[in-house]
Amino acid sequence: MKYNYLIDTHNHTSDSMDADFSAAEMCEGAVKNGLDIIALTDHVEIDVFKRDGFDLDAEASYRHINEVKEKFADRIKILTGVELGEASFAPEDADRLLSEKDYDFVLGSIHNLRNREDFYFIDYSKVSTEAIILEYYNEIKNLIQWGGFDSLAHLTYPLRYIVGEHGFYVDESKFKGQVDEILTLLAEKDKALEINTSGLRQKLGRTMPDEDVIRRFRELGGSLVTVGSDAHRPGDIGAGIIQSYEIAKRCGFGSIFYFENRKPVEIGI
Ligand SMILES: [Zn+2]
Ligand SMILES: [Zn+2]
Question: No. of H helices and E strands in the chain?
């Protein structure tokens, strides 16, 4: 199947602490990989906004994205995005940042629990994985209640580490009620669910969330989905995007969306 538009609305530049390629290098990669529309969405972890220098990162990222937006204007459409982490921990700081910047698109993420390190660093042999996942889903509900984002990024993120990296078994059916509640809330608040394809190229081997959850979102009234590779290097931009379109279609979605000036724009698939 050939698609008219290849869109990837989750990508990082060297203004993210875990990426090394400039905004221009990422955009060159996007053009090379045949993308039509991308969002650059550097990390701003709002729970440690000032402590860890994310206030400076946010400024630099915003400036650099606006520079490439102009520079690449005749080659690719670039959207000014941000991946806002843990906004529910410090909603006033999140609101202030969003009121100061004209972002096109805001991803909402939870990368760590309150007063805890990133899921990446946890020693899962020493903790109850079920308790961790439950706490994660509760925090996602807080994030949706705050509601200042456009699309919920990589729902089921802890599974990337617990199941993917460390190979622990998790009975995901135990969390069905939690996940249903999250998907219903998202649909009610007209928020998008992201199909994050990074898991396809990692040990997890599936999107975050996976197809069952995306289908359930549709069943529970969800209509907005965004797609993102979560690329941290140029070669990964657009990776898995065609698969994410196929998944969306199989789950009953006739369109995917990108956001411009914080408004959803529909693209038929
Ligand atoms: Zn993330
Ligand atoms: Zn990301």
Answer: 8, 9
